[in-house]
Amino acid sequence: MNSVEIIEYLREEATEKYKSNIVKMGIPERYCIGVSTATLRNLAKQLDKSNQLAFELWHTNYHEARLLAVLLFERKSLEFCEIDNLMEDVISWDLCDHLCKNLIIKLPNYNEYISEWITSNHIYKKRAAFTLIASAAIHDKRIKQDTVTLYLKLIHEHSNYEHEHIKKAASWALREVGKVDFNFNEEALLLAHELLESGNKAQVWIAKDAIKELETVIKVEGRKRLISSKSKMGMEAYNESNTAQRKNVASAAGCSCAK
């Protein structure tokens, strides 16, 4: 399929429901087709990777075509400036995060984008920097202390931006760093409390949002990362732990009575 045929196919699959949802995210209606992400992912599996096709789809300006393009790029052959130009075109948080999580974080030099974009005044470049920090904290199983120290420094210095989509990404980054292990959790909480005490309005919001989760994390057997005790898995693990403790106490009491 070429780009024209793909757009025709997407129009055939479109529904007003999905189009309405996309428009609610702030995407101009003229750039919306109305197709689910699941449809795009299924289509991507049927197509070969191709930068030419991906760029053709991207330049149609259709939101869904750009989401699909991200899945078709041959990432190893993309230049830094090409990815920078892609992010320059982004006007929504979902495409920003989609580009980060499905393409940029898989590049060996993703930290270069963090360093470049964290100082940007472009809303979605700055959001992308925080999204990449969060993604790195989640997926880098060998993340090092000096990397975490740098990430926390960047969050500290560049989280004073009032835009909602940046505040939420900064909080996400701080929370994910704090869920790597208990040592990093302590460092993330220290930063959160520092922002709470001396940060601007945006940083105080970020701190409160992060502290709510970081102060409730627990270690669950079989998982390397920490999780919130308020999450479904966290509550299940907490209940199982309490049940086991009660059984142990009852067993010990029984043994004591027998003696």
TrEMBL record:
<protein>
    <submittedName>
        <fullName>DNA alkylation repair protein</fullName>
    </submittedName>
</protein>
<dbReference type="InterPro" id="IPR016024">
    <property type="entry name" value="ARM-type_fold"/>
</dbReference>
<dbReference type="InterPro" id="IPR014825">
    <property type="entry name" value="DNA_alkylation"/>
</dbReference>
<dbReference type="Pfam" id="PF08713">
    <property type="entry name" value="DNA_alkylation"/>
</dbReference>
